[in-house]
Amino acid sequence: MSTPAITTARRAKQILIVRKDLKMGRGKEIAQACHASMGVFTSKATIEDGKLIIPIPEVAEFWLNQSFTKICLQVDSEEALLELQAKAEAAGILNYLITDNGVTVFKGVPTRTVLAIGPGWSTEIDPITAGLKPY
Length: 135
Known about the structure:
35% of the residues lie in helices and 29% in strands. It is of the alpha+beta class and 135 residues long.
């Protein structure tokens, strides 16, 4: 990957949105957020001749080569999480929703826990996540 020039006009980031209504323990929240952050990339990956191949859009390359900004925010319901995902999808922004399989915490019930939005350009993500509470 080449390193794009740093400019003040272009900023990229990833937003991790945690459902606080689930009252997950801190470790569970962190693990779910990590899954979401990685899922943006691994969900598009293939394996060819024993090598992991991940397509990287320009904004993701910029993000990986710059400050790698991640911001954690929160919502209070599954509906809010799904609404944010729909907005990200409509805007064409990379995103990944984690559905926990329920083995350790949710008594066998698959549960949507965290949404990663981006990496994407701040100018595209900010209108979607404006007004959310910090985690």
